[in-house]
Amino acid sequence: MDNNRIMIAVDTQGSDKGPATIVKGACQALQDNGNLIVCLVGDQTVIDEALKGNNAPMDRVRIIHAPDTITNYDHPVQALQRKPDSSLVKALAELRDDPSCAGLINAGSTGALLVGSMMYLSKPGERVRPALAAILPSENGGFTAVVDTGANIDCMPSMLVQFAHQGTQLMKDMYKIESPRVGLLSNGAEESKGNKLVKETHEMLKKEEGINFVGNIEGTNALSGDCDVLVCDGFAGNMVLKTSEGMARRLIKDIVKYAKKSGKMEYMEVVNHLMAVYDFNSLGGAIVLGVSKPVIKAHGAANEASIRNTIKMLMNMAENKKVFVREDN
Amino acid sequence: MDNNRIMIAVDTQGSDKGPATIVKGACQALQDNGNLIVCLVGDQTVIDEALKGNNAPMDRVRIIHAPDTITNYDHPVQALQRKPDSSLVKALAELRDDPSCAGLINAGSTGALLVGSMMYLSKPGERVRPALAAILPSENGGFTAVVDTGANIDCMPSMLVQFAHQGTQLMKDMYKIESPRVGLLSNGAEESKGNKLVKETHEMLKKEEGINFVGNIEGTNALSGDCDVLVCDGFAGNMVLKTSEGMARRLIKDIVKYAKKSGKMEYMEVVNHLMAVYDFNSLGGAIVLGVSKPVIKAHGAANEASIRNTIKMLMNMAENKKVFVREDN
Q1: Contacts of B245 in chain A (CB under 8 A)
Q2: B124 has a pLDDT exceeding 80
């Protein structure tokens, strides 16, 4: 095998749009990067069928047959134990056991992926609960990593401090930011603002070594670019992520309607412009932090473009040869 | 005094833009509605100066001289006690003591307004902590009341149930909705989703009489129109409000930039269209729920249009002769 080649495991099952979309996105990613090998994990017959007509370079395609699927209706822990032939279990095992496998993308059950990542990819002696980071475009043209966006719903201050470290490492690795600015999501910029969790975390982050803490950030400025890492519990982070997404989608839909109603179809140019920045679906998925190899949770409704972008993101990470945990954790 | 006339107290101090903007907005509201009397509370000299050139119908203007101001830097409770000559204290006293005074608008310290509302306007024997409701335009063309948006940051489930009742009453009164649909903000639509607070509240709302509970609502659909009242703790509600506002403003700014860059100034029509729906600043303020007379907290940076709209909102409420508390509370 060519030494520059990097393999990414792609779980073809569990997504809303079905295996064909996932396979199509993976084939597009193969065209993008000649060093990529995709390891498609799922039902062999379904994958074979999906590969047809995609002109995939078959010397860079591996298939692991896994006829079973873990769905959103399965209990994560039970499913991981009771479905050894599921695509997720086989993909996680491949990622853990094969040194040439550098990352995993999955668009299925978030819970199962998080628990599975912890079960298969914790560093020895470590049981950090993984966090989910979404990297969103900020107003100044850069990116902000929102940590956590939904893996940890009820948090302690120490967990938010952990998110600060994981987010810092992520932005150092991915964007080569020397000292990423860490903001704490709150209901006001003033130090006195926040719920109990935020106030206690604020005090801890002020003193925490290795963290470039810039203070509280309110919702209005969550994605203004005032920080590189936005720390929050998974509930609040999920609000920021989904409210932003919902609002962007709504304004875009509103312009489409306005264009149709007024008959001025040139307004669709505005829509296309906005879609290029604000189509969260195509941005790539949320990154699982705190595990030994890069794992990305793609949107359940991810389209081909999103799968393609997510694989691209994983390739970047793998080429940086970084794992997204603190070495000293 | 004409029997149809309704007086609204307007605190001219404490806003970011100064008394002249507040007075200007009030004068515009006087033009809108011939039954409105405004009671301008603040420094007499400053108000006299601000009134010049606004063509105010002086028979419908009252002035209460209050030379002192409560600012965002003041401790709310201490300021209310130690600044008897402040505009907020005088305005609250006027609202409490004068039966012809039907409402109050203030663009200053939220904390002082909330504590003051509780001190001056609680119903006898009642000490409900007031909640702040923001009424936001929903995607289907209606409105959604988000309760609470920041008055109560650390909440118990019983408080969220109280918000559900207050919001229900508000939407019945303001929009004549017979049985307002109440949604609970969560990180997923499924019943199993939510932090501890949301899960416990969900169980209570399911059984609560007088509440038309439609289940969990996630951030993406917070303002889709899937509910008339969105119940949440003040921290999460503040996130939804401010993230929506920030995102809408950002997309609009982005279109302006795109129009300028491409030289296609016709795109500004799209901007104007969106501004009419999404300019949160002009939507009117947040309503203080749980007090005996309508009180509205205007945005600190409220412009004339916002003050004008907020007074219009208060007039509607006063003309409905409704107070926004449950009678059986």
Answers
A1: 219-220
A2: no
